[in-house]
Amino acid sequence: MARAFPTVASIAVRVTQLGSDSPERVFRTGELGATIDCTDPLCDGGGFHIRGLVEEMVRKREKTREEMATCLGNERLPGRGKRPGRVRGHCTRIYRVRIDVKYRSYPG
Ligand SMILES: [Zn+2]
Fold first, then answer.
1. Residue whose C-alpha is closest to residue 93's, from 74, 76, 78
2. Nearest to 71, CA basis, from 28, 40, 27
3. In angstroms, what is the span from residue 14 Cα to ligand 1's centroid?
4. Is 96 inside any structural domain?
5. Is residue 2 situated within a structural domain?
6. CA-to-CA distance for 7 and 102, rounded, in angstroms?
7. Tell me: the pLDDT tens digits for 43-89?
8. Is there a domain that residue 3 lies in?
9. How far is the CA of 108 from the centre of ligand 1 (A)?
10. C-alpha closest to that of 54 among 103, 87, 100
11. How many domains are contained in the chain?
12. What spacing in Å lies between the alpha carbon of 107 and ligand 1's midpoint?
């Protein structure tokens, strides 16, 4: 993702799950894709979009932003064998996201 932002020196995204004591996940410039995955093993198609947030920050030259992101996936019950299980409903996970962007400084 970094190559799309020539003015950006580095990006760090910290993700924690709201209401859980699971450890913080950190994604740095080279590890960032368009989305960040949900950690719920039952979650299907889960996660949330990160790229749009970063793009908006870069456009406004924001350095730090904290957001809540709701998982976009569905919770699916375990299936039998290779068959997918029944969808139980929307994934209820909410993530607290902190994005830090460092910009390149040009001389002069
Ligand atoms: Zn999820």
1. 74
2. 40
3. 17
4. yes
5. no
6. 9
7. 998 999 999 999 999 999 999 999 999 999 999 988 888 888 899 99
8. no
9. 46
10. 100
11. 1
12. 44
